[in-house]
Amino acid sequence: MPRQHAPAFTPEAASESAPGGAGERQSLPALQGKMKRDPEGYEEELRQLRRHFESSVFLFRQQAALSSTSSSGGGGDVAKELGDLALFLAHVAPFYPEDLADLPDQIGGLLDTNARALPSGLRVHLVQALILLVNRKIVDLEDTMELFMELQVIGDRAVKKLAVSHIVHSIRRMNQTHKNEIRNRKMQNILFTLLQGEEESRAKRAFTILCDLHRRRVWFDERTANAICNACFHASSRIMIAAISFLLGYENVEQEDDSDASSSEDEAQNPQVILSKEDVYKANHKGTTATKKKKKAKLQRVIRSMKRQQRKSTQEAGSNYYSPLTYLKDPQGFAEKLFSRLQKCNERFEVRMMMLKVIARTIGFHHLVLLNFYPYLQRYVQPHQRDVTTLLAAAVQACHDMVPPDAVEPLFKQIVNQFVHDRSRPEAIAVGLNVVREICMRIPLLMNEDLLQDLVLYKKSHEKAVSIAARSLVTLFREICPSLLVKKDRGRPVDPKTRPKAFGETTVASDVPGAELLDEDFSSEGEGEGEGNESDAFESDDEKTNKLDTDEAMEEEDELSGGEDDTEEADEDQDISDHNSDKNDDGLEYDSDVAEEENDASDDDEQLSEHLDDSESDVSDQDEDNDQDDKSKDSCSKTNKRKLSDYIGQLNAADASLRALKKLAGAKKAETSSDEAGKILSDEDFKRIRELKAKKEAKMALAQHGLSKGTDTRSVTFKIPSSDQLSMKRVDPSMLEAHIRRKLTKEERLELVKAGREDRGKYQAKTAVKQKKTGGLSNRQKQHKKRMPLAASRAKAARSRQEKKNKQKHSGKQFRGRKAWK
C-alpha cells in the first residue's frame, strides 16, 4: 500500500490567507497581478506557492517512478496543477530573484529527465515557462540550447514548434542591434556539433535552424555557410539532399525577414532612365496620330528594357547577389570530394542530377579545374537522355576561360554530333545550337572555321527555333572573331581584326571604366564655350581650299571632254576607272594594314606636304601654259590628260595620308587621356560617369528602336558579358530550349482561349456599335440623307420601273417541274 502524504498546499488556501480578506477565493492570474504590483506584500504567499510547487514535483516524480503509465493514470489533476504553478512562478520570477533563483534548474531538470514520460499538456506548459524565463533574461539561451534541441526529437509536434521558433527568434532578437560574437560562437558550436553527429534526427533539426538563420541573414558568415556546405557530405542521404537543395534553391527564396527594409531599398535602388526632353517630345508631339502612338509604345519598351538591364547589372555586380558557395574555404576540395561521392553513390537519378548541378556551379563560380568532370558528363550527352537540358546547363556552367580547351573539346564535339545533324529533330538541333553558343561564349577557342560555317547554315531552316539559334551564333562570332565567318555573315563589325584571347591570357585594366566619357564631356563643354569660332574658321579655310581644288578639277575635265575625240574619251574613262580601282585597292590595303600606317604616320605627313606642293606647282604651270602657249589641240589634250592622271593619283595619296593622320590623332588623344587618367577622381566625378553612362545607354537604346538618328548602333548590338558575370550568372535550362513550340493538350488550349477572352468585351456587330454611338451622324449617313438631283431621281425611278416590269414578265414563265398532263 503506498504511503499516504499530508494534504498538499493548494492555491485556494494561499488565496484565502491573502491580505484581500479571509475566505476570498482568487485565481492564480489575479494573484499574479497583485504580486507584480506589490511584490513585498506577497512574499509569504510566494513561499507557500513555492513549497506547493516543490511538493507537486515530488509527488509527480513518485507517481512516474511507481507506474510507467502515470501520464494516463490518476495523475491528470496533478499534472495540470503543476503546469499552472510553473507558469505562475515563471511570470513572477523577475520580482523575486532570490526566492526563485533555482526555478530554471528545477524546470530544466524535470524536462531533461522525464520529458518523454510527461503528459503532452504538462510538457507544453513547462516549455512555455522555461521560454518565459529565457525571455526575462533570468537564464541564458546558451545554457538551455542543448535542452531545446533535445526537446525537438521527442516526438511532440507542439513542443518541437515551440522550441524551434524560440531558438530562431531569440537569436534574431539578440543580433538586432549588434552582433555578440562570443555568444553566437557558443551557440554555433552546439549546432555544428549536432550537425556533424551521426544521429539523423538531431542533425536534421540543427541543419533546419542553421538554414533558417542564414536565410534570414542573421548568421550570415563564413562559418555558417561552410557548415551548410559540409552537410553535403553527411552520412545520412536526407541531410545531404536537404543541403544540396538549399544550395541550389537559395537565390529563389524570398527574404521574409527584411520585407519592409527591402521595399525601401528597392525604392532607393530603383533604376532611373535618363532620356532627353527632345526624345520625349518627339515621341509625344511629332507626327500623325498613328506614328505618335507607335513612338510612345517604342519609348515605353526602351524604358522597360533599360530598367531591366540596369536591375540585372546591379544584382550581378552589387552586394545583393549571394550564394553560400561564395564563402567556401576550400572550393577545390569541396568539388573533388562531392564528385567522388557522386561517382560512388547509388542514389536515385534526381539526387545525382542535383549533385551534378552543385559541382558545376562550384566549378564555374570559383573557376576551378576538375578535368575528370567533363568525360563524366560526356557519357550522358544524348538527345533521348532524361532531363538532358539540365545536364547540358550543368556542362555550360562548368566551362570557363581557365579550363584547357583540349579537356572540353571531346564533350563539345559530342554535343555537336549528337544534337546538330540533318536527321535530328528540330527541338534537338535548337538545343544543341544554343548550348554551342553558350559554351563558345565562355571558351571561344573550341570553335573552328569549318564547323562554324556548317552550323551557320541552319539559319535558313524553316523552324523558327533553329533559325533563331543559328543567327544568335552568328551574332556572337561577329563580336568574338568575325574572321571565322564568311564575308556575307560578318555584317559591319566594329573591329574586323578581333580575336579571342589565348588560353591563360588576361586583360589588366589600366584606367577607371568610364573615365573617357568624363574627358569627352569636358572637351565638348570646352569646345562649345571657347573654341567655336576657331574651329569654324579652320573648317572654313579647309572648305575653301577643297572647293578651289574641286572647281579647278571640274574645269579641266570640262575642257578635256570638249576637245577630245571618242577614242580619247574612252581612254580617259579607262584611266579614271583604273585610278578609282587603285584607290579602292589602297583603301582595302589600308584597312588590312592599319598598324603599319599608324607606325608610318610621320612619313605620310611628309608625303602629304610634298604632294600638296607638287599639285600647286602643277596648277601654276598649267595656268602659265594656258596663257602663253597656243599649240595644236592634240598636243594640248595629251598634256592635260597626263596632268589629270597625276592629279588624281595625288588626291588618292592625300586621302590615304589624311586617314593616317586621323588615326594618329586618335592615338595621341588616347595617350593624353591615359596620361590624364592618373588623376584622382572625386565622388562627383563617379556620379557624373554614372550619369553619362546612363545617357549613352539611353541614346543607343533609342537608336536601336528607331527613335533617334545619327547614332552608330553597331557597338551595342550584342554586348558580351565578362568572365566574372558569366560565372555568377546561373544558366537556366529552360533558356536552352527557348522558342521551341511543344504540342499543347486540349485543356491547355482551352485555358489559353479563356485567358484571351478575359480582357475582351462581349462581341457586338459593327452596325450595332454604330447605332449606340452618341453624337452626330457620320459623313456616309449624311450623304445618304442628301436630296438627289432631279435627273438622278428620274433615272432611279425609271430603273426601278424597268426592273419591276422585267420581274413581272418572267414571273409566270418559270419552270415548276414536269407536267403530269398535256
TrEMBL record:
Keyword entries, A-Z: Nucleus, Protein transport, Ribosome biogenesis, Transport
Subcellular compartments: Nucleus, Nucleolus
GO cellular component, one term: nucleolus
Xref: Pfam families: SDA1_C, SDA1_HEAT
Annotated segments matching region Disordered: 1-43, 489-646, 746-822
SDA1 N-terminal domain residues: 88-461
Basic residues biased stretches: 806-822
Annotated SDA1 C-terminal domain residues: 775-820
Major subcellular site: nucleus
InterPro entries to which the protein is assigned, alphabetical: Sda1, SDA1_C, SDA1_N
Segments of skewed composition (Acidic residues): 517-542, 551-575, 587-607, 615-628
Record field: compositional bias (Basic and acidic residues): 489-498, 576-586, 746-762
BP GO terms, sorted: protein transport; ribosomal large subunit biogenesis; ribosomal large subunit export from nucleus
Role according to the record: Required for 60S pre-ribosomal subunits export to the cytoplasm.
Similarity comment text for this entry: Belongs to the SDA1 family.
Name of this chain's protein: Protein SDA1
Organism annotation: Zizania palustris (Northern wild rice)
Lineage: Eukaryota, Viridiplantae, Streptophyta, Embryophyta, Tracheophyta
